[in-house]
Design goal:
Layout (H helix, E strand, L loop, with lengths): L1 E5 L6 E6 L4 H16 L6 E5 L12 H18 L18 H13 L4 H18 L6 H10 L4 H8 L2 H16 L7 E6 L3 E7 L7 H10 L4 E5 L1
Parallel strand pairs: 2-3
Antiparallel strand pairs: 1-6, 2-4, 4-5
């Protein structure tokens, strides 16, 4: 078995696997937004929801709060993103990320031709949760955020609760698993035809990323494939 470089020039995109209730994804939000804006038309974003704690039913324990508080502090230091620590005063909170993921899938499905819209909405959900201590596991809160983001609240609610969107969200979780993603955020660039080059697996600041990706594109967007 040998590894050979492959190059490509068409069908390129970012593959971004994330969860709106992943704190490191929240920290990475300004980075992916800058990348998406800079590479508009050249590397559109294919956004996949990871399902970090999808379907969780257990209320947070004190030890869970300690672990998560430490993680949030680390993200704040690394990224500069703000967190409302009043969240930890909540009692019996069930940290289920499925509703927030489904909300983003709803926004993505709403306007599939405008991937930046779904990315922006993911950031709005994350900001509501982390920055303003809003309970985005609650349907009414999610619909309110959608309304604030310019969606029709009544229509958004119907789509959000539909079997089709629930199934699409579950397919995202399966895609994440099939890709072997074990941590978020995960960002790669490439195409389904030729494969992907890993940009980052975990939080990474913007420093040097744009330049590295411009160089990668100039070289023909090479990826490494295994050949027998």
């Amino acid at each position: 078995m040998t590894e050979t470089p492959q190059t490509q020039t068409t069908g390129l995109h970012f593959l971004y696997v994330a969860d709106p209730l992943c704190s490191w994804c929240y920290g990475f939000a300004p980075v992916i937004e800058k990348l998406a804006t800079h590479f508009t038309g050249r590397l559109p974003v294919r956004l996949v929801m990871g399902g970090l704690r999808a379907g969780n039913t257990k209320p947070m324990r004190d030890e869970d709060k300690t672990y998560i508080r430490n993680a949030w502090s680390n993200v704040a230091k690394a990224s500069g993103q703000s967190f409302d620590m009043a969240f930890f005063d909540r009692q019996g909170f069930v940290y289920d990320t499925e509703p927030a993921c489904r909300a983003v899938v709803t926004a993505r499905d709403w306007n599939a031709a405008a991937p930046l819209s779904a990315l922006s909405f993911k950031s709005a959900i994350s900001e509501a949760f982390y920055g303003h201590n809003r309970d985005v596991t609650d349907t009414d809160v999610i619909v309110a955020i959608a309304d604030e983001a310019g969606f029709d609240g009544t229509d958004f609610r119907a789509r959000f609760l539909s079997t089709e969107i629930k199934s699409a969200t579950f397919r995202d979780f399966l895609t994440s698993q099939e890709l072997g993603v074990t941590g978020f955020p995960m960002l790669a660039a490439g195409s389904e035809t030729h494969g992907y080059a890993l940009v980052t697996n975990g939080f990474r600041p913007i420093d040097g990323l744009i330049e590295a990706l411009e160089s990668w594109l100039a070289q023909g967007a090479p990826v490494v494939k295994t050949a027998s």
